[in-house]
Amino acid sequence: MWDLARLIFELERHGLEGALIEAGCALGGSALVLASSKKRERPLLVFDTFEGIPRPSQQDGEDVWKRYDVIASGRSSGIGGDRYYGYQEGLLDRVSSTFASFGLATETNGVRLIKGLYRDTLRLDGPVAFAHIDCDWYESVLDCLREIEPRLVPGGTLVFDDYDAWSGCRRAVDEFFAARPRSAYRFVRGARLHVVRRD
Question: Which CATH class is domain 2-197?
């Protein structure tokens, strides 16, 4: 989580304009890191179905479908053996309560939790300084890129949580940026793939 916090501290220090986006928040851990690292007035828009992960598409590989079959069968376990977050009811309320318990109530800290599929809910009307794209499958990642990347400010960063984990995410990212000038971005490999729009 430290690399996410560091990126937010840096964009605040440099005064980059724009919202922060998280696409795919699960129980809200990384969203809490983003919220606690930003200035209160900067918007943080958190998009998720809050009802479990959607079905993959034909663009996803065998690895994705095997994982989805485990999830869909009810055999997936959560962190430390806890119940998998996707099986929990009232997830939106739980995430909202978690924010409040850390002193970051959404209504007073510029945080919006937005429920639904990205293709239905991800509509932006202003600049974006940072996006944490943690949504695993091909179509979800591509939906995010289509809406977020055109609004990314110079110096802004896209972080892909699952680039090295799931073939669908990797394929969506590779295809999307293959159709754009490579010189317009810096690709930084660390714990996650970071794509930074050049100034």
Answer: alpha beta
